[in-house]
Structure formats: C-alpha cells, structure tokens
Amino acid sequence: MPSAKRIFIFFLFSLILNFTIAFAQIEFPSVISDNMVLQQQLDVPIWGWTKPGEKVSVTASWDQRELTTTADANGKWLVKLQTPQAGGVHTITINDIVLKNILIGEVWVCSGQSNMPVAKSFRR
User: Does 99 map to a domain?
Assistant: First the structure.
C-alpha cells in the first residue's frame, strides 16, 4: 500500500503539470519586444509561438482594433498590423501581454564592412 507521502508527492506533481499545461505561454522572437520601432504606414507582421490551436488576440493602442488568429499545428501564429504615420508612444497587447514604449517611424537597416561610408553631420 502506497504511503501518504508518495500519494501527496504524486498529487502535487500532477497538479503542477496540469497547471502549466492549462496556461500556455506566448513566445516572441527577440525583435518583438518593449521599446521597438515599427515602420510607419505599412502592414507590419507580428508573430510568435504558443500552444497549437490556441486563440491569439492582438490590439494596438493607435487604432484599438482587435485582430485574432489561431496558432497552427506547430504553435506558430501571425497577424499583420496596419501602422499609422510616425509617432508614439504606443502599446501592443497580445492576449494578456503588453508590449510598451513602441514608436512608429522610419526604420533603416544598414550593414557592411569596416570600409562602409559613414554619414557625418557637422554644425558650425
């Protein structure tokens, strides 16, 4: 006959396992976070991963439109937010996660080698 201690440990383990499965965590790539800058006047993709089949709701503070999608069989999800003209500070709410301090503007990505020209600004 199992001891009371073993039954308690089994019950506690089962409870913890069920609790973590019930609350699926939404994950994002590192480029989607607080303090990001999004390109203005564009359909910007916002994506991530969660439990397969889970409903994901995304709301941006600049228009308060709620976009919803469902994670695919691999747990991937994606929505495209229409960004306004340059400005900020905004938030994006994804289910119960709030991304803060988001700015809208021009996003430029430059890469090159050490001989890449650098634009300089001089004041007189």
Answer: yes
